[in-house]
Design goal:
single chain; 243 residues; alpha+beta; 42% helix; elongated
C-alpha cells in the first residue's frame, strides 16, 4: 500500500552497533544537505533498533532525501528509506492535528509502580543524571573559553585572510566540530565522483584533508559543500590544499 508523502522519513537496516548519539549526528550530517531538519528520532530499544526517523520542515526535502539516499551505504549497510506512515508529533503540532495519546492501563499501572520504587532511591537516582550532564559541559568548556578569551590576539582574520590556493585534487577542511570522524566525512564526500579518501590530522578534530582523482572533481565537491553545517553551529570551510 502506498504511503502518503510527508515531512518524515523512516529509515531501517541501520547498523545496530552504532551508539545512539553517534547515529543521530551522522544522520544529521548526511541528510541536512536536503533541507532543514526539525528532529531526528532514534531509539535503542529492542523494537526500534536499527531504525530511525528524520523529520524535515517540508515534504520536498523528504522526497529529495529518499530519492538521493535510497540504498546509500551507511556504516557498511545499505539504508532502506520510505515516508513515515504517520506524521511525527512535531509536525502534527505544527499542523494543529496533534492528539495526546491516552496511556494504556498496563502502562499507567507500571508508571505507579515505578514511581513508588523511585521514591526510596530518589537521592541516588538524582545524582547520576546530574553528573552525566556536568561531564559533557566540562569537556566543552576548553573549546569555548579560549575562543572567548582570545579575541585581542587571535583576531579571526587569520583563517579567512589566507589567499585562495590554486586548484588541487586535495581539499583542506576547517571549522569541523569535535565529533567529526572519518566515516562521517566519507559519507559526505563519497557522493561526488572521483572521491578517493579522507585524511584526519592526529590531535586535531577541527581540520581534515579530502582527496579526489583530479582538480575538476575536487572543485565540484568544494563548491557543493562549502558552508555545509555538519552540526547546527559548525559551517564547514573548504579550500584547495597547498601544493
Amino acid at each position: 500500500m502506498d504511503i502518503r508523502p510527508n515531512q518524515t522519513i523512516y529509515i531501517n537496516n541501520l547498523n545496530e552497533k552504532i551508539k545512539k548519539d553517534d547515529l543521530k549526528k551522522s544522520l544529521y550530517a548526511i541528510f541536512s544537505q536536503f533541507g532543514q531538519i526539525l528532529d531526528i528520532v532514534a531509539m535503542k530499544t529492542l523494537k526500534m533498533r536499527g531504525q530511525a526517523f528524520v523529520i524535515f520542515k517540508d515534504i520536498s526535502s523528504a522526497t529529495n532525501a529518499i530519492r538521493s539516499m535510497q540504498g546509500f551505504p551507511f556504516y557498511d549497510k545499505p539504508m532502506r528509506i520510505q515516508y513515515s506512515k504517520k506524521d511525527s508529533d512535531i509536525i502534527a503540532k505544527i499542523k494543529g492535528t496533534f492528539v495526546e495519546r491516552p496511556k494504556r492501563k498496563k502502562e499507567e499501572e507500571g508508571d505507579v509502580a515505578k514511581k513508588s520504587k523511585k521514591k526510596s532511591a530518589a537521592q541516588k537516582q538524582a545524582a547520576a543524571p546530574v553528573m552525566a550532564q556536568v561531564q559533557p559541559v566540562a569537556q566543552m568548556a576548553p573549546q569555548v573559553q579560549p575562543a572567548a578569551a582570545a579575541p585581542p590576539t587571535a583576531a579571526a582574520p587569520a583563517p579567512t585572510a589566507i589567499p585562495e590556493q590554486p586548484p588541487n585534487q586535495i581539499l583542506f577542511l576547517t571549522n569541523l566540530p569535535e565529533e567529526t570522524n572519518e566515516m562521517m566525512l566519507s559519507m559526505l564526500f563519497n557522493q561526488f565522483p572521483g572521491f578517493k579518501e579522507v585524511r584526519l590530522v592526529p590531535g586535531r578534530h577541527d581540520i581534515a584533508f579530502v582527496e579526489f582523482e583530479n582538480e575538476v572533481q575536487s572543485a565540484a565537491a568544494k563548491d557543493a559543500l562549502q558552508g555545509f553545517k555538519i552540526t547546527p553551529s559548525n559551517a564547514m570551510k573548504i579550500s584547495f590544499a597547498k601544493k
